[in-house]
# Entry
Amino acid sequence: MDPIAVVLWIAGAVCALTWIASLLTGEHSWVDRLWSIVPVVYVWVFAISTQLQDARLTIMAVLVTLWGVRLTFNFARKGGYTGTEDYRWAVLRGRMKRWQFELFNLFFIVLYQNAILVLITLPALTAWQNPRPLGVWDAAVAVLFLALLAGETIADEQQWRFHRAKGAEGYSGPRFAQSGLWGVSRHPNFFFEQAQWWTLFLFGAIAAGSLAQWTVLGALLLTLLFVGSTIFTESITRSKYPEYADYQARVSPIVPWFPRHAVTKDATV
# Structure
C-alpha cells in the first residue's frame, strides 16, 4: 500500500481516538499525549515502505525517533500521562460557551493539530518520491538536527531544574525561569522544537534538489501554531507575574539573542 495512504489511515484513527477520549473524560490533552509518538510512526511508515533501503529516509526516521524519545520523556516526567490537562484549555473553557469549546475541541485541538502532525512529517514523502544517494548536505543537516535536539534537551532540563528548585521549601528566587538559555530566549524550547522540523524539511528538499517543495507547509503551520500559543501563554503568565513584562522587554521572544538592557520608567527616548 502507498505509504501516504497508510499514514492517513493512522491519522484518521488517531483523530477518532483523541476526540472520543476527550468526550468520555471531559479533558482535552489527548493530542498532547500522542504528539511525540505519532510523527515517529508516520516517518517510519515511509522508511519501512522502502524496506529500509533508502538511507535518507532511514536517517530521517532515526532522527525523528530521537526527537520523540526526548519529548516523551520530558512530557512524562512533568506528569503529562497521569491525566493532567494543559492549563490553557481550562482558561479557554472559562471564556467560551460549552458548545463553542466543543467545536474548538473538534476542529482545532483534534483535527487541526493532528493535521499538523501529519504535515510536519511529509518531507519524508518528498524524500520517498525522490530517491537519490546521500551527500554532504545530508550529513550537515543531520548534524544540525542533532545540535538542535541537544539545545532543546538543555532548555527543558534547565526549566525542569528551575521548577524543582522553585517547589522546594524556603525558595525565594525568581518566579519563572530566566537564566541559562532562558536568559537569551523566553521560549528556547519552542525555538529548538520548530527548528528541528524546518531541518527535517531540508532532507526532503535535498532529495528533490530544490527548496520549492509544498511539504514546507508542515513546518510553516507548526511555526504559526507556536506563535499563537506563545502569545496566549505569555498573556496568562503576565497576568500571574507582573514582573514578566520586564522580562519581555529584556529577552528575545523565541530566537536566542543577546538580552537588552532593562528598561526603566524614567528612561527617555
About this structure: The radius of gyration is 20 Å. Confidence is low (pLDDT under 50) at residues 264-269. The CA atoms of residues 107 and 113 lie 9 Å apart.
